[in-house]
Amino acid sequence: MAASDIQCDTRRSDLRKPLSPLSTSALNTRRPRAGLSKHKHRAGKICQDPPAPAQTTTRQSSISKPRPRLPKTKPDEVQELWAHVEAELYRAKMMSQEENRKRTRSGASGSKGKQKGTRAESAVPSASTSSFDLLASVGEEVESAPATVTSNGAASSKRIGPYNTNFRSSVLAPRGISFKLEQDFKSPWQHFESAAPKGDAASYYDGHYPGMKELWLDANEGFLGDVVQEYQYMHNTRCCEAEFAAYAKEHLVKCTKRYLPTDPQVTRLFRSVRMLELVSKPQEPTWKAPPIVQPAMHAETYDFDIRPDCSYWLSHAGFNPNYASLISLRVRLIELHGISCPYLFTEFKRDGKSTSTVENQLATVASLALLNRFHLRLDRIAKAASTWLKTKNPEEIKMYGITFEGIAYAVWCVTPEMTAESEWKGCSLTRVAHGNCTSRPDLRRLVGWINEIHRWGLTRHAQSCQDDIKLCLRDEGSDLEASELLEQLEDP
What we know:
The protein is 41% helix and 14% strand. It has helices spanning 3-16, 24-29, 56-64, 75-102, 109-122, 131-143, 167-172, 188-192, 201-208, 221-236, 241-251, 264-267, 355-384, 440-474, 482-485; strands at 41-42, 45-46, 147-149, 155-157, 177-181, 272-275, 310-315, 333-334, 339-349, 399-405, 408-418, 424-436. Mean pLDDT is 75; it is low at 22-29, 34-47, 56-62, 104-157 and 485-492. The strands form three sheets. Strands 5, 6, 7, 8, 9, 10, 11 and 12 form an eight-stranded mixed sheet that branches.
């Protein structure tokens, strides 16, 4: 037997021997370990640890019981719930400033505290509440927000907004804002009574209206195929609203160069400026909120403080520089950007489940812009002592809008409604076209509408606004020469 084997057997036999007990003196001379409690080392004696509590039975009993499983959810209910959550987040963001302004502090602290306590208790769901029931309860809570009555008889609700189901009946309808569906759809060239472009559409428009080649779209097969495939992909993969909006802003409702060109022949041309989520709160006297024209109807106050996803305005560089600084006396001029007289608004949503919401948002911002364009024409009528029908281009008092809901789109024309005395009594949003961005014929039709709306905005709309502004400034004691104000102006 080898020496290594003998040594290994000796070690194994030593391990099988019983351990010899330690002497008491040896234990007393050892230092206590750090972390041991003091009761274990008293008077040189070691106290036995107290017996550990019997937890085995409890642990086994808890393990033996089956854990409760979460109830299964339905994809449709979850999607609807998340849509409502997104709506609430957007509502809170848009209405926070309104709540701060309208909050009344005197004598309302006690009643508000009771309302909040009751609402918080009723909002706690039980264990058996399903996701659909929870969604329904949240929706009822939002829609049943307490309303107060103002001095003019209009009810005020802090939670009212385009997402509310009663927004049309309590905000838009009392102000005479309604929706219509065009029965006989026309092409954009029939609608505007203009000539269709020949050949390359983008080159055609750029040749007639230079300086904004990024604005125009071309309906060639390559462009249409790329857009159709991209929209189909976003639809199949259920992309979020931001994905749809970002792609449309890059390829359909595009932005032009905002700095002024150096060519003097192009500088004085009217230019289109695209703005994203522009803050333009109503303010007197050139940017008024639509008034209530149906006092018999239940109406809620709404300040029309909304940010359109995308809007197109005219650059004030197209106006005569001798009076460009004075146009703020007649129209809403955003001096920081040098823009005024909007003509097109677009709103985006992810899918078709929010049709009423995206239409309400468009109606809110388009009616605000149209009302103030209408007032500019009324001011011109008063200055010229003429009637509405005798003014130049009375049919040009309108706005346009495009709503995108996922792959679906709709084009809207917003026109004023007038009384027999030519006074404002609301406006109508007429759907003049609709289609699907995954269909080449529908997409080609949309490209035509976008190009023609821009052409109308840069020509007939811009010229009409300029004529009205010039005539109003002429009779306001301006120090400008009459020849400067009447440049290219033909009075009715």
